[in-house]
Amino acid sequence: xxxxxxxxxxxxxxxxxxxxxxxxxxxxxxxxxxxxxxxxxxxxxxxxxxxxxxxxxxxxxxxxxxxxxxxxxxxxxxxxxxxxxxxxxxxxxxxxxxxxxxxxxxxxxxxxxxxxxxxxxxxxxxxxxxxxxxxxxxxxxxxxxxxxxxxxxxxxxxxxxxxxxxxxxxxxxxxxxxxxxxxxxxxxxxxxxxxxxxxxxxxxxxxxxxxxxxxxxxxxxxxxxxxxxxxxxxxxxxxxxxxxxxxxxxxxxxxxxxxxxxxxxxxxxxxxxxxxxxxxxxxxxxxxxxxxxxxxxxxxxxxxxxxxxxxxxxxxxxxxxxxxxxxxxxxxxxxxxxxxxxxxxxxxxxxxxxxxxxxxxxxxxxxxxxxxxxxxxxxxxxxxxxxxxxxxxxxxxxxxxxxxxxxxxxxxxxxxxxxxxxxxxxxxxxxx
Length: 432
Fold this sequence. Notes:
Largest sheet: 8 strands, parallel
Structural class: alpha/beta
Helix content: 40-55%
Number of helices: 13
Number of strands: 13
Distance between the termini: 58 Å
Mean pLDDT: 90
Shape: globular
Radius of gyration: 23 Å
Strand content: 5-15%
């Protein structure tokens, strides 16, 4: 025996004592230090509801698109943990962020099929840190806009290689070479093995779900057929690789030229001619939930605040009605914001805007409707002013806004929307 000279029994006694302490108080110890090894469940869908561990799951979350980009460099990396901790402290449960950067500064995809491992490790860190901070991620995998490369970069790559059918950005949706580029990208991301957790992305329940493309538009085909074909093909491709995660398109929510709502609900006439249609695009069985954005400042020429706020109410109720009656799927408002560049802007106006959004989600949740949650655009931490835009805020710098956000977390939690792993914290948070 290794332990001789009468040391065996004292050693056994000591080990037994340590084991007893761990078994009795270990859960408390790891919970205090934020390292609970609780097995997570995937968020699922049942009809018009998100479900988690058999309970309807309503979402109060936010957007911080910049996570992966800022996780690349050591000086900016701490911002990710700081923002995730702050979100969790507000009872927020889902953060939407970019899982793409194509051919730009800190590019994840340098060229078609070529990836920067340092940037991929930054995305690994974002996912691992989100798990530590009790927050799930909605990950977008390409941009319709030019920021961070987007479909413009894919078209440029095909054109430079002599493979492109057209220099139009919309060829992203129909060019066979570009479709091949994108599918390779999707497969690479979904099957990526996280270097920190050892879990493939497609097997990680920290990821709430995937978004095909941020704010797709295909103005060269106003009928919507081109975009619809792309959605059906790419959503089927994603589901063939990853059947565990939820999937959405990433729509702004405009009604198309054949929709009976195009005149009554769209912000202005042009919105029906962008090659999108909310109901048609969200209908495929491979799409699990509908996504909608809310930007009255950019969508209407009317400057009157009351007009804009009334539009927000109509817009949200219309899409929740679609989820309830047409789609039979959850509807999530994945971006919304009020511009600080409006003439006579006052932060109190933004509070009114947030409250309208939160109230409509809450009322839908109380009625067990399809309004599943909302994600403001966008949240930052202090010292990031140069990365801000006209919609971004540091929530805790304005107490009234901070209070609104926490109250929404608590209201939804009381209907049953809290994560099991957050329940005790939310009870304490909301008891005040």
